[in-house]
Write the structure tokens for this entry.
Amino acid sequence: MALAFVAAAANAQLVLTPDRPAKPLATALEINSDASLSFAAARADTAGFARAKSFSPDDGAPEAYWARVALQSVADVPTEWVLPLALHDVSAVLVREDGRMERHRTGRGVPLAERTFPVAQPVAIQVALGPRESAVLYLKVAEPRGSYATVSSPIPVEAKAFERSRRRSDLFQGLFAGVFLALAFYNLFLFWSFRDESFLYYVLFLLFSGLFWGVSTGHVFELFWPQTVAPYEALQFFALAGAAVMYIQFVRRFLDTRRTAPLPDQILRALLVLWVGCILLGALGVWNLAPDLAALTSIGILTTTFSAGIAAHRRGFAPARAYLFAAVAFLALGLAYIGLYLFSPTLQASIGRPMLQVSMLTEALLLALALSVRIRILTSDKAAADIAREKAEATAHALQETDALKTRLLGIAAHDLRSPLTGIVGFSEMIEIETPERPDVHDMTSAIRRGAQRMLHLIEDLLVTAALDGGRLRLNRRPTALAALVADVIDDYRSRADAKQQALSLHHEGGLALASVDPDRCRAIVENLVSNAIKYTPYGGTVRVELASGAEHVRIAVRDNGPGLSADDQNALFQRFRRLTPNPTGEEAASGLGLSIAQQLARLHGGRIEVESTLGEGSVFTFVLPKGEECPVAVAPEASCEPELQMA
């Protein structure tokens, strides 16, 4: 009777071969939808059984049903097999070929102490088969609808291989828990030391993550609650939810996202609200929605926190770089795990846990490194700021002393050098008058006079530069006819242009060129531009001065056909003591201060000097001057060419 029963039941057999990967139980699975669970395996009744693809009630099976699997060992020696059955409540009967029956009990809703295979995870039974023995396993299953966990295709594992794998897993889990606890205590100490909330959220993230994995592997219940029904999946979900919430808060505090990444910070706040919603759905038992919503929310957390790190890094937030380094591995493996959960539960069940566990351990270690980097950066920045402040104070003091020394030296130059030079110029002129018939003496006195005048001009430039730097130069503005001023300058410089056979001309466009300026300072600007044009224009060249009067501005342009300026020369044009590439064509002297002084004087008038130049074709320097408000004539005396300086 037993043999007939086995033959009738075995529509499909699951062949178990040692040292070879077994096929899923679903390949030989049949289900009887007798919700009353009145079927008795001892009667060898086969009515009502039909092929099924999985143990999941979502495939159409009721909350209570019978299932059976025909097993066939092809080994020549006795073998033992572990059959994972992650269902709520399973009462199993193994019927052998000779009619003997063995009873087993397991399930997520069965206390560990009542299971015949006392291992928390995986939920399973252990079956022993003789050499080439066949048997039929009957399973009385109670599985509530809407459960969080579903097992679509459990795969048998040889008992010896299972024990080897479990020992390796226990060793890894011990190391994993030890690292997490060490990191948690260390960062808790750092929190008490620095009072930085990011350390506290990191500790809570570690604790919730450790709880998640302790529940997932079953070690928490094996160690502490073997007599208690273990709601593994629900506790995993809530622990993971706590870890996600703490991770969001850690990132927000660590990266200071309110300041460094405002938009990702707002998204993270919204994700916090979604996670609270997931927790509420889980608490209400809505497991057909809560896990999937949590998975999608987790994707948002991973991508948003990573984008927050990028935004903070772009804003120059130094610790963000260390965080990004930590987040890359977790982001990649976390997205892969979520993808497996959503699209391939079978593959997720086999490799998902170690993959996610390794990624979380890696990120935990790297986040701890990021926190230490943050501490070092803050300490280093403070020390560097103190050193920089001390250097700045010392430099400022040295600059003040140098500026005071410069002022004293310029005062000495003004009073101790200019007066003798003026005397030299006067005496050279007297010598020429007293020796009208000595051309050789005239040549020498002319050379003396030219050298002294160059020195006087240089001293005057230095004095004006010092006055401009010290803010002591004041403009005496009055309505001035610029056409007459420019014409007077051209008349003064015509002899120099004639000496180099240059054509110097003035062209006036527009109406009356009247502006409120300091005539002496304005004349100095025009003189500098005309002098430079003559100085750098070759013999026989052309220097054209153009005066144009508009509604609000007067433009004085000095155009020449000299060598022109390169881009580098134009960039350095108004820097002090900067010698340009072109050389004066008549061996005239150049101090390197003229254009710098002219630009500063132009800006004092509210104007500017513009330059347009083409290398090899010439240059155009334009003094743009606002007309300003007209004021009464002769309200102030003419400005002195000598800035006021105090003697040391």
